[in-house]
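SEQUENCE WITH STRUCTURE:
===
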Amino acid sequence: MKGYFGKFLKIDLTANRIEELPVSEADQKNYIGGSTLAARLIYDYVTPGMNPAAPENPIVFAAGPFTGSNVPMVSRAAVCGISPATGLWGEATTGGKFPVRLKATGYDGILITGKADKPVYIDIEDGVAEIRDADHLWGKDIYETQEIIKAERDGRVSIACIGMAGEKQIHFANIMNDEGRAAGRCGMGALMGSKNLKALVVSGSQKAAIANPDQLKATIEEARGHIRSHANTSAYKLYGTNMYMDLGMRLGDVPTRYFTKSIFPAGKVHGSAFRKRYTMTSYACSGCPIGCGRIIKDFSEDIPRVDGPEYETIAAFGPLCMNFDLDSVVRANHLCNVHGMDTISAGVSIAFAMHLYEKGVLTEETAGMKIAWGEGQVLLTLLDLMIRQEGIGKILSKGVKKMAEELGADPEEAAHVKGLEFPMHDPRAYQGAALSYAVGPRGACHLKGGFYSLDVPGNEVGLDLGITFTDKNNPAQKGALAAKVLFFCEVYNSFTLCEFSPIPAAMIAKILQEITGRPVKAMDLLTFGERSLNLKRAINNRLGVTRKDDTLPKIVRQALTEGATAGIEPDLDRMLPEFYEVCDWDWETGKPTKKKLMELGLERMAADLYA
């Protein structure tokens, strides 16, 4: 099929073996690419009770049919595996130049299994792969690693690598590429570290054929015009994702003081405050006309450049910790970048420690230090301890679920779903978001049900997919709405397409048709997304997920007494049964019904779940 090379590269680090893995046209058609095709490949390795750090657990880097085309905002790649953070399905995405160069190797993705007997990195150029020694890179930080490899390797390359957090297999270690771009969530960096894999280096000049290049060219111009005219484009260029901070506070969507408040001085941490204080420039991924990435120049004598911070990071190290010292937020962001650690999970874990210290569950004697709200230096010290795996930092680096267990805290105060810490969008602000957190494939994920950008005042058009948005605080029909939104959101990490792309559904379908040459209608996107969601659900079911796991902890569920969400609680009792009915999931077991799996062409998954 056009748009694909029809093959992955398969690397076994234990056997030191490199081979090609053909991908059938049927799999390309049914699973498209990115995280969904990765899930199809990973499914073959999944066994109940499997250890995510086991050599046989694969890590997959996957592009999609959009990647490498001239379509705007498609330089995205998915990194997938069974998550060291949760023990369940894990995926993260990244941008920059890496996704385009990954596809330019001549492969649709890379599947890596096994464990090298010493540190290695993988180098792939134009279809030729080599496993190289990385002893000299082990212990180096993200930026040092990239600089050393670039000095060793001629040509234009992109490097995805891990830092100290990944080497130490910290549960929420991430993977960094193109200096400061991140595949941040689910601990994919720990998965690399468990394989003694320091880096993946990609380059090439291969291009997948396009079925209808002339029609695609015209559609691309139309897409660019749509992006330029979109209301958020200029704000993204000016402030990046942190344009949302003040609006989010007014909507009650920015978690504050570890999910117990919603009002804070937003002006102190909004994008304009950063622009006033620092010399900032923007950064765009390959082929993106927006450039929402932030770079701070001349931050300090010891840190001349900082990649970021973005909204999620600022909210996690800012209002969530009641910290409004911008310098400490920037330094915390940089520490996580340098050593490769997810800023969301790190910020939530630190805020939980502050919350427990205030309540007396965590004491100065236990922590080895005072932990007070809003202390930027305390935040930085805790981050350093986490990265070094010393003292109380070792406990914090396990995430809030394990923290509650080891510190004797109420598990209902651990802000996670299925082991993944909550992002910086409060579930009380959008009923649909609360439901998507509870049932989403990777736990508390703001990208698999982006209600903060969809179910907003004035959004009358919706997605032109039979999806009608209503009062965001009204749980009525939110079960059906969340199902369709989750189906549609599966498209982005699979095609692959930036979550911030405003390209409408009908145009996405048209682009897929023009690239691949097969007929695609807008409503087909929902069918594809439904298949993707159910495939990932089947993986989680095999790993032990049941209906009882589709819930929210009390700390993010109980009503607040202030702000836009005062008195509001997510009504899961009303929404969850409706979601299950629309999705055709079994209410007793939490599994997709056998009938639904068969209907979606997931026969093998049906056989495994209903053996």
